[in-house]
């Protein structure tokens, strides 16, 4: 029995699966991650990406922030891939109870997943800092320079920037789902970004599955370790 067969058997015998995913889930949809060889961190800008994507930089230099954000963070043409689609089908089949994601692209919802906890927010929600009016990512993309509300306020994406805290309600819900999960599948994440990476510590079960192309700090904790493309692995999962 190979690793995928074992995973299929585990899922077949469970009705409480929680998935926790990172950038690797969306790279197969054409969205680059931050830390891979081809990711944003490997490219050269006037400022490092982690500086541009900080709360301080947004406040002090919103025009430069948005120049980077529009070019490198908004991928509105991206479509869900096999992993997104299969997770949505597993949820519809009563297997997956929640998808917890570090991604901000909204592709899980686009694929049909309903219970999605977005730890780092979403590019699909944007609000005026002055009056709170909602704007779409298309509004942001089409704005000249700094996107401004009709009231004059600067619009801010509902994404968690460096120096900003995660939404505590979302974190508490994620902890609750993970703590009660029979199977916790972690995929497409290096488990290097905290506090999100610390969520694994709340898992109480004995079916921890790690799927990633490269090694992670939690590999030794895994009950099932699968190295490879998450899309290719999920394509082999059965939905009954």
Written account of the structure:
InterPro entries: DHS-like_NAD/FAD-binding_dom (IPR029035), NAD-dep_sirtuin_deacylases (IPR050134), Sirtuin (IPR003000), Sirtuin_cat_small_dom_sf (IPR026591), Sirtuin_class_U (IPR028628), Ssirtuin_cat_dom (IPR026590). Its cofactor is Zn(2+). The protein is α/β, with parallel strands linked by helices and 240 residues long. It has a domain at 1-31 and 81-120 and 166-240: TPP-binding domain (Rossmann fold), CATH 3.40.50.1220. It has 9 helices and 9 strands. It has helices spanning 3-12, 49-52, 55-60, 62-72, 82-92, 107-111, 137-142, 168-180, 230-235; strands at 17-21, 96-101, 116-118, 121-128, 134-135, 155-159, 183-187, 208-212, 224-227. It has a 6-stranded parallel sheet with strand order 3-2-1-7-8-9, with helices on both faces. A hairpin with a 5-residue loop joins strand 4 and strand 5 (134-135). It is elongated. It starts with a helix and ends in a 5-residue tail after the last helix. The model has no long low-confidence stretch (mean pLDDT 93).
Briefly, what is this?
The chain is α/β, with parallel strands linked by helices and 240 residues long. The protein has helices spanning 3-12, 49-52, 55-60, 62-72, 82-92, 107-111, 137-142, 168-180, 230-235; strands at 17-21, 96-101, 116-118, 121-128, 134-135, 155-159, 183-187, 208-212, 224-227.
Question: Helix and strand layout, with pairings?
Answer:
Blueprint: H1 3-12, E1 17-21, H2 49-52, H3 55-60, H4 62-72, H5 82-92, E2 96-101, H6 107-111, E3 116-118, E4 121-128, E5 134-135, H7 137-142, E6 155-159, H8 168-180, E7 183-187, E8 208-212, E9 224-227, H9 230-235
Parallel strand pairs: 1-2, 1-7, 2-3, 7-8, 8-9
Antiparallel strand pairs: 4-5, 4-6
């Amino acid at each position: 029995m190979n690793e995928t067969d074992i995973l299929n058997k585990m899922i077949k015998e469970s009705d409480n699966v929680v998935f926790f995913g990172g950038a690797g889930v969306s790279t197969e949809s054409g969205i680059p991650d931050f830390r891979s060889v081809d990711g944003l961190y490997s490219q050269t800008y006037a400022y490092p990406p982690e500086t541009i994507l900080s709360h301080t930089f947004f406040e002090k230099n919103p025009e430069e922030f948005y120049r980077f954000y529009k070019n490198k963070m908004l991928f509105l043409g991206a479509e869900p891939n096999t992993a997104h689609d299969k997770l949505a089908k597993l949820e519809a089949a009563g297997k997956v109870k929640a998808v917890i994601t570090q991604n901000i692209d909204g592709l899980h919802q686009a694929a049909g997943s309903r219970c999605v906890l977005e730890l780092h927010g979403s590019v699909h929600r944007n609000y005026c800092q002055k009056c709170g009016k909602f704007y779409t990512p298309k509004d942001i993309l089409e704005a000249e320079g700094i996107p401004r509300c009709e009231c004059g306020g600067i619009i801010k994406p509902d994404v968690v920037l460096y120096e900003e805290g995660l939404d505590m309600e979302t974190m508490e819900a994620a902890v609750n789902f993970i703590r009660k999960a029979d199977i916790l599948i972690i995929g497409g994440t290096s488990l290097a970004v905290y506090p999100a990476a610390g969520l694994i510590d709340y898992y109480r079960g004995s079916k921890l599955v790690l799927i990633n192309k490269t090694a992670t700090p939690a590999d030794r904790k895994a009950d099932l370790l699968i190295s490879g493309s998450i899309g290719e692995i999920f394509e082999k999962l059965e939905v009954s």
